[in-house]
């Protein structure tokens, strides 16, 4: 899903004065997971909402993997915060939706790391099959 044409000022989670350190934990970037999946977030608006795409490196389906749209919110806190965020992915190549919740951490060297937990929901044919739809 492309980002809206006119986005409000980016969500500044840190001060931007000349004395302040560079902005950190701004989700606007390309992020790579350990197994090679990646997500690209084009912009975070003034309310903390963002849009982007997610490209999975591995999947259990036999379908060709395609980039999938994502959207979600990020909490913007004070300069000392390491904000939480969440997003959902509508998979373009299967009848599944994935939800992620996480937090951005900055180590003493300034390296940013996103940690997340995820929940995958696949479509099933009946209520009796509901037990196998969520991972």
Summarize the structure in words.
This protein has a 7-stranded antiparallel β-sheet with strand order 1-2-3-4-5-6-7, with no helix packed on it. The chain has 135 residues and is mainly beta. The chain is built from no helices and 7 strands. Mean pLDDT is 76; it is low at 1-20.
Average per-residue pLDDT, rounded, comes to 76
Largest sheet: 7 strands, antiparallel
Look at the structure and give the CATH class: Mainly Beta
DSSP strand count: 7
Please tell me the CATH architecture by its name.
Beta Barrel
CATH-defined superfamily = Avidin-like
Coarse shape: elongated
Q: Which structural class do you get from the secondary structure elements?
A: mainly beta
The count of domains is 1
| Helical run tally | 0
Query: What portion of residues belong to β-strands?
Result: 35-45%
Helix content: under 10%
Radius of gyration: 17 Å
CATH topology: Lipocalin
Distance between the termini: 25 Å
Q: What string, H for helix and E for strand, traces the elements in order?
A: EEEEEEE
Question: Summed up, what is this model?
Answer:
The protein contains no helices and 7 strands.
Features:
135 residues; elongated; 7-stranded antiparallel beta sheet; mainly beta; disordered N terminus
Draw up the topology in text.
Blueprint: E1 29-32, E2 38-44, E3 49-55, E4 68-73, E5 84-90, E6 96-106, E7 112-122
Antiparallel strand pairs: 1-2, 2-3, 3-4, 4-5, 5-6, 6-7
